[in-house]
Amino acid sequence: MAKTPGTPRKKAAVAGPKQPRAPRKPKTEPSALDRIQAIIVESLEADKAEQITVLDLAGRAAFTDRMIIASGLADRQISAMATHLQEKLREAGAGRVPVEGAGGSDWVLIDAGDIVVHLFKPEARELYGLEKMWGEELDEDVAEPVA
């Protein structure tokens, strides 16, 4: 087998410039994102989650496109919601779905890729106030000048 003479640099020069890549597709198609959101909301409703809120963060947050926040009354209920949600997302083809805080805390986070799910006890939900932090009202409010 004959080997082409030259260094990697010379071979690259002979090969010419790299061809431009095709533009990247969006992370997730909107229809797929809507489908995952529907699975999450249906699972939470089946587990009797309270105050289910969906926030659209597309273009506002780099870490996710949507955030879903829900409340559960007890550690056991929140843990069951997280487990059921993890199973349903795996069945839907989401692959590995990391869950943080499922060992009995006031706040459980489920990372479903482009959708992040927060499960709270009511007191913790009020304390952290994610709806206030990420809600659309903040985009529209303008700081009033001090007279």
Describe what this molecule looks like in 3D.
The chain is of the alpha+beta class and 147 residues long. It has a domain of 98 residues: Beta Polymerase, domain 2. It has six helices and five strands, in the order H-H-E-E-H-E-E-E-H-H-H. It has a five-stranded mixed β-sheet with strand order 1-2-5-4-3. Strand 3 and strand 4 form a beta hairpin. Helix 2 packs antiparallel against helix 3. The longest helix has 17 residues. The radius of gyration is 23 Å and the shape is elongated. It starts with 7 loop residues before the first helix and ends in a 7-residue tail after the last helix.
Spatial strand order of the main sheet? 1-2-5-4-3
Q: What does the radius of gyration come to?
A: 23 Å
Would you state the CATH class of the domain at 30-127? Alpha Beta
Described by strand count, sense and barrel closure, the largest sheet is:
5 strands, mixed
Percent helix range: 25-40%
CATH architecture of the domain at 30-127: 2-Layer Sandwich
Query: What is the CATH third-level topology name of the domain at 30-127?
Result: Beta Polymerase, domain 2
Beta-strand fraction estimate: 15-25%
Calculate the terminal CA-CA distance, rounded to whole Å.
84 Å
For the record, what is the CATH homologous superfamily label of the domain at 30-127?
Beta Polymerase, domain 2
Count the beta strands. 5
Mean pLDDT over all positions: 78
Unreliable runs: 138-147
